[in-house]
Q: What sequence folds into this?
């Protein structure tokens, strides 16, 4: 054909062409170098993951500080033996429940079930806090005793000053 | 067994160890996130310390790789 292109490279080849500078690895060293590069890359990823874990740990300190506010929740007279009182602590979006146990002790927990976040209610017959969604039951120490929940309820620390009850902190 | 194939096997083993450690770190991070959102703060510092320990192991293995390269090239 008259328009056939001559593809042969008749020019003298440079000793160190640009492609060799860009890709300096020989075929037989390819696996070896790739693994070494991957180890370096994974170690960098490891550094980022460790840093992210510390960020999460430090974020918890900031969040935990917010749960140390004091809040008035009601009068002691309104909470008779075997009765319960609903309140919000530490924020307005955090429902909690205080219970006067049959032996007169005052305890309070987050009302959010640790299974799937339904609201627990006091169940005097079982002497515990009952979750109606999946029939989970917590005793008055906040520990799960029946149903699907496996983690205890976060406890609210209370302080009684005269006739007034204050929430003063959360115990996770 | 030649020196190169020994080195390749060694690097494969190191790569497997580092990759396993990174997977454990990833798991620790997801568990920490879940604990943070669930309000369970007690496990977060030990998880971060464990992740840092794994980072130290990885850094030690990477240092070994660099030293191995340096020794074989000289």
A:
């Amino acid at each position: 054909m008259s328009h056939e292109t001559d593809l042969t490279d008749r020019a003298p080849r440079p000793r160190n062409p640009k492609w060799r500078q860009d890709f300096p690895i020989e075929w037989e060293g390819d696996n070896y170098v790739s693994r070494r590069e991957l180890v370096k890359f994974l170690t960098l990823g490891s550094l980022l993951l460790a840093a992210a874990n510390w960020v999460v740990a430090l974020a918890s300190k900031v969040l935990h500080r917010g749960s140390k506010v004091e809040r008035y929740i009601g009068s002691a007279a309104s909470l008779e033996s075997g009765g319960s009182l609903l309140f919000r602590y530490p924020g307005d979006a955090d429902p909690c429940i205080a219970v006067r146990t049959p032996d007169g002790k005052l305890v309070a927990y987050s009302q959010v079930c640790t299974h799937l976040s339904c609201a627990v209610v006091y169940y005097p017959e079982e002497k515990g806090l009952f979750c109606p969604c999946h029939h989970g039951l917590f005793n008055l120490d906040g520990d799960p005793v029946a149903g699907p929940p496996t983690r205890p309820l976060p406890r609210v620390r209370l302080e009684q000053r005269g006739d007034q009850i204050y929430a003063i902190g959360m115990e996770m | 067994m030649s020196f190169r194939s020994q080195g390749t096997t060694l690097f494969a083993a190191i790569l497997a160890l580092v990759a396993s450690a990174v997977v454990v770190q990833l798991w620790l991070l997801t568990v920490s996130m879940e604990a943070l959102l669930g309000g369970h703060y007690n496990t977060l510092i030990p998880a971060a310390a464990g992740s840092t320990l794994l980072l130290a192991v990885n850094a030690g293995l990477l240092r070994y790789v660099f030293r191995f390269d340096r020794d074989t090239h000289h």
